[in-house]
Amino acid sequence: QASDYTVAFTNRGARPVSWTLARHRDARGAPEEMIPAQGAAVRPLDVETGDPAVDARLRDALFAPSAETVAVTGAQDAPLRFSWSDGELVAEKTLVFRANGLVAVTVSVTRNGQPLPARLLWGPGVGNPSAEEREVQGYQAPRGVVFTAGVVEPLEAAKLPPSGRDFAGVEWVGVESHYFAALFVAPGAAAAVRPIAMPARPDEKPSVAPVAVVDASRPQPVQLFVGAKDHQAMAKLGHSLERVVPVGDWIGPIVVALMGLLRWVQSHVGNWGWSIVVLTVLINLAMAPFRHYSIVNGLKMAKLSPEMKAIQERYRKVPLMDPKRQQMQEEIGALYAKHGMSMGSQMMVGCLPLLLTMPFLFAFYRVLTVSVELRGAPFLWISDLAQKDPLFLTPVLMGVSMFVMQKLTPSTMDPAQQRIMMLMPLMLAGMFLWAPAGLNLYWLT
What we know:
The protein has 445 residues and is α+β, with helices and mostly antiparallel strands.
């Protein structure tokens, strides 16, 4: 037991039957359970030797534990050893629980004194997503994940071959869901990810879940991480574990910075919903000068739009490659000069604000997508910002506010295009009905 998690084992197979996270709560308010509840032939920390008969005996064996209870206190490691023998087979599984959150796992199996190969398994899947979580737009079912040669590769269980996929020289391998992960850290080890058929839930079709496998025959122990995909906490553990959090490549640094800023705001505001509102306002204030230039540019363009259309209409039937097209460009240049503008500067003023602001808007969207802190966080009538708005108020208000903003924004588009653009708020509101409430709150703000 540690301040962050509690693990309960059965001595039958020396396997964990519960791994709960104290800092994260499920829909009932209980600590989040990482051990999948669905029955399957494979269970977390099973041992494989390559001999099915031996594996079956190990799963059914009653191991003797070295202690009834162990606790991590301060920086002191807490070892727990399970051992079993029937005279022919001798098996030992040792787990060292560390204060940093990683668990060192060592396995040895011998038959008549000869060592057998040993592989550790985690699966099927990780955690127990509720029906409400599975309904949310963007829900990610548990899948395998492997980190090799600096590349993170997610592996959808349904797309894996029946025998799975083998990997050589991994840094880590495991199973992830949207917010949680179970990862074996074994630099340079052989590993695999396999699919396993799962019994159907009520009113649902049978599914396929991932199982992670790692070689545990090497002298050095396999390290195990089981917990939330918290980028900041995982970065402190090393081994590039934080790479399992999909912050993105080119916007990743912005996402990580905004994550830290959101936490800082929350530490002062005390509510994740209001923190989203405050940080969104702060971002928009920072971007206000660029938007101001963009709006001013739009107003100028709206003034010269009738004259621009008249010039374009005169040359409408002139082919693109006709030299007369050059005359049209000269007339447009003269029109810009008449209004104290230039074509080059207008292109820059029109595009630069968008190019500068969009990365931050998308980055904050990504922050709200991957931040485990929003899971179970309440805001006014919303009980969980990671779930859909129960009253659908935020997506509806977002659509209405977008419509109003579009009406107020000067436009140089023709009436037909403007009518089409007016449908966009309705379409986006419909698309976001089942999106997480935190994202809707952000777009609305």
